[in-house]
Amino acid sequence: WYCRVLQEGRIDAGLPVMLVERAYPRWTMALINSFANGSNKDVALAQELAACPLLEEWWGKLIVKRAKKKS
Questions:
Q1: Is 1 exposed, middle or buried (0-12, 13-18, 19+ CB in 10 A)?
Q2: Which of 9, 31, 35, 70 could form a disulfide with 63 if both were Cys (CB 3.0 to 4.6 A apart)?
Q3: Cα torsion at 56, 44, 68, 37 (round to 10°)?
Q4: What Rg do the C-alpha atoms of the chain give, in angstroms?
Q5: For residue 38, how many other CB atoms are within 10 A of its CB?
Q6: Using CA atoms, how far apart are residues 15 and 20, in angstroms rounded to an integer?
Q7: Is 69 exposed, middle or buried (0-12, 13-18, 19+ CB in 10 A)?
Q8: Looking at residue 71, what is its pLDDT?
Q9: How far is it, in rounded angstroms, from Cα 1 to Cα 29?
């Protein structure tokens, strides 16, 4: 989700970065982090996100576990 290096090199502040593809626009890093930090308790949404084939299995397990955890 973050970035993938297609060509090794140097980038500095102010240089353009191009979004090439967003396969799952619904699954943002903000949403993933809301589960990871325990602030999002929507278990059904967590399970749906965990089923995303691009998400590492351990992330999916963590997301569902944190969504189910009582505050």
A1: middle
A2: 35
A3: 60
A4: 15
A5: 12
A6: 16
A7: exposed
A8: 67
A9: 7
Contacts of 34 (CB under 8 A, 6+ apart): 40
How many CB atoms within 10 Å of residue 60?
17
Neighbours of 4 (CB within 10 A): 7
pLDDT interval class at 3 (50, 70, 90): low
| pTM metric for this prediction | 0.72
pLDDT tens, residue by residue, 19-55: 788 889 999 889 989 999 999 999 999 999 999 998 8
Q: Is the pLDDT of residue 68 over 80?
A: yes
Sign, CA dihedral 51-43-22-8, equals negative
